[in-house]
Structures are given as C-alpha cells and as structure tokens.
# Entry
Amino acid sequence: MTDSTLSTTRRSLLVGAAGGLVAASAQAAPQALAMTDLKKEADVACLYHCDYGAPERFAQTLNNISNHYSVYGADPFSLQLVIVAHSAAVKFFLSSLEGSPWKDETLDPALFERATALAKNGLKVHLCEITFKRLKLDKAKVKDAPFISFVPSGVATVAVLQSKGFAYLKVG
# Structure
C-alpha cells in the first residue's frame, strides 16, 4: 500500500463518516499492514498501547481517547489516534470469544460501539498477528470494521509509531 493510498483511504473513510459517502465500507476482513505502511498523518499523533483485558481499563482508554478528540474539536486532520492491541486486548475486537482463552467471559457490546463511534473521528486499531498465532485465534473472528487492521507485531508497531513521532500513552 502506498502513502497516497493510505491518505486517500483515511480521508475517504473520514469524509464518508461525516458526509455520507462511504468508500471502502464493504471491507470483508481487516487488512494486513506492513510496518512500512504505518505513517504519521497529522501534526499531533498518539498511540494508545493496549495489552490488557480488563474491560474497565479498556473503557477508561476509550474515555481518554474521547477526551483527546474533544480538545481538537473531533477534527480528524488535526489529530491522529491509534490503538495498538495485543495480548488480552485483542478480545475487545472479536465477534465471538468462543475458542479463545476468554471463552467464559462476557463483554459489554457497548465497548465496541464506543470504539466504532470514535473511529468516525479517525481512530484506527492495529491488532497483533503474533498474538493471534500464539493464542491460536481465528483471525476471521475479528469484527468487520474498516478501522481495524492487522500488524505483524504489536510491540514492534508501538516502537515504529514512536520513531515516527507518535506520543505513547498507556492507561492504568
């Protein structure tokens, strides 16, 4: 994927969310990004590192992201926010916990609804492929949402984004 494709995709999705034209809304499954695809597209960019499975902590992360957007008037071109999820945090983006280490848990669907609402401001979520391999999770169980993608490694993505000028935040 090229820089212009990423910018066009981000802008198309954001314009679609705000203006009714939705490009790439029929995404069948999360796309896989290479480390070279990760770009800083706003003057202010921040990654939220999520490697925890506590729903209360994830809810607080979403609160912080909402507050972050509110300061910038929810302008997706002034602020770029990304969640990098690995380990237990990937469960918040699964359509079913069946066959996972969290099969006996029940997650409040409002958590994903809140993440989806924040994606209208430009939030992106990057899920760790290593987590899926190590835990033998079916990648097809990831919710179908255009703001979700796979990255080769969550921790490597955190480092790459920081090297590109993203600030680092971790809740809790």
The radius of gyration is 15 Å. The chain has one domain: 29-169. Confidence is low (pLDDT under 50) at residues 1-27.
